# Entry
Amino acid sequence: MFKKFKFSLLAIAFAMFVGVFVSCSEPKSASIYGEWQSPDGDGYSISETTVVYDDGGWGFGYTGAIEEITNDYIFYSLEEETKFYAICYKNLTEISCEFSNAYKAGGKTYCNSLEDAKNEFTVENGYYGYFAEYVRK
# Structure
């Protein structure tokens, strides 16, 4: 009887061990795609092909063709010109994210190629001094 009890305990422990590992899945990674809005009323709409910035009525909004998205940056070109720009994002979750357009005093506002934009518009080069928080709409 003790052997059956010992075997039963081992079987239950094994089942619990396996159950814990099977039921634990990696958390979903948050997606940058979607609509994002700040408390100030401006916002981004990001799809696989397009980024739209709505400045909340100030006259500085834009629509860009996405060239590349990395873990930290969105590189895009404006549809009416062949100039490349960048947005940096950080602290991405399912419900919020911080965004910053490439800017530094005395820095470039655009680059003539995607490779130049990827090399120029980086945090390490002094761009992105201010990030604003956005929530998913």
Remarks:
- Helices lie at 2-23, 114-120.
- The chain has a mean pLDDT of 84.
- The CA atoms of residues 36 and 136 lie 5 Å apart.
- The beta strands are 34-37, 43-46, 50-54, 62-69, 73-78, 84-90, 96-101, 132-136.
